[in-house]
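Risk mitigation, structural track. In case the binding assays with 4'-deoxy-4'-aminopyridoxal-5'-phosphate fail to produce interpretable data, a predicted complex structure has been prepared as a fallback.
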Amino acid sequence: MLFDKFQDMANFQAELAERDVKPFGAVTEQILSATEGIVEGRKVILAGTNNYLGLSYDPRCIRAAQDAAERWGTGTTGSRLANGSFAEHEALEQEIADFYGVENAIVFSTGYAATMGMCATLAGPGDTILLDADSHASIYAGVTLSGADIIRFKHNNPEDLAKRLRRLGDNTGRALIIAEGIYSMYGDIAPLREIAEVKREFGGYLFLDEAHSMGTLGATGRGAAQEAGVEDDVDFFAGTFSKSLGAIGGFCVSRHAEMEAIRFCIRSYIFTASSSPSVIASTRESLRIIQAEPELREKLWENAHRLYDGLKQLGLPVSPAASPVVALEMEDRSATIDCWKALLEAGVYVNLVVPPASPSNNYLLRNSVSAAHSTAQIDSIIAAYASLIDAGLAKPTLAA
Ligand code: PMP
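Fallback model:
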């Protein structure tokens, strides 16, 4: 039957309903600040939002969005190729290209449309894509559509990438290597110096999704490649406006002049309406702020280290290094769901991640840190985790 394949999901939803938990689609009834809201009737600290710099609630960004809505209306009602290319879109493209110090930029309506569309378009039949095995769903969706040969290399493993590129022999000129700056689930950072070295040795083009690293890494916030000092080795930088920039939308920038031809071949650019001018205007303001206020990035990392160290001190199974994403890797599905519920009841909203969204078929309690969190809020999050241990819901498994 057509619906048979959904039975497992229906069973899982029924189990969650029976346990009175709503980890997927919990409703935020009110936003009180960048880090606090009313979720499912409770006042909570928001620790699962990707709002790394707190800019979704910055008065300057809100004002920019309001002004743009008054000037331009609420929507473009069309694609960039038809009637949806407003001066705001072109201005943001210029600003984001300038930010990366390259000539070419394309702005998309979502980050998903940017990565999926670029990956689907850059490589085609006869080309080869080598992608990190833990790549985001939007990348997998894109490469599946591309028609290229697809090779997965082991997560964050440049040696495995080298082995597979070597096998392509003289054909690496038609190879697209895909990696991410910070991986979204564990918060681990790609070994970009080594990946760049491999690319230099064997050839190919490098596409880097900086969705979680733009704004959070690098001397001026350009991301993980800037942090690693290998920006010249990256052919395409993609990213999103929905995390550090606090809005919605995506981008791809490149030094390659071919981008202007590529633009008109990307289906997720051509056949969808462009972003509302208010969204573009707030993004432009955020982009200005992240360049003018590097202290936001410093505060984010201070908070990330505080949360990471606090959870590690409790002996909880955190990932190997501190990052704006701090994930706890749990083995017991039922216990992880109970933990998520208990955290919400203790006033902390985090993300529950289950397979297939979690990379290795395990269960994650995923926290994302914000520069807007106060020290007291970070300490409250740590205290909420400590209460899980006290209640016997979570076990310290790491030597403190
Ligand atoms: N790439 C990565 C690595 C992501 O984590 C995400 C979103 N979680 C996206 C792309 C898609 O971005 P958006 O949600 O802004 O569409």
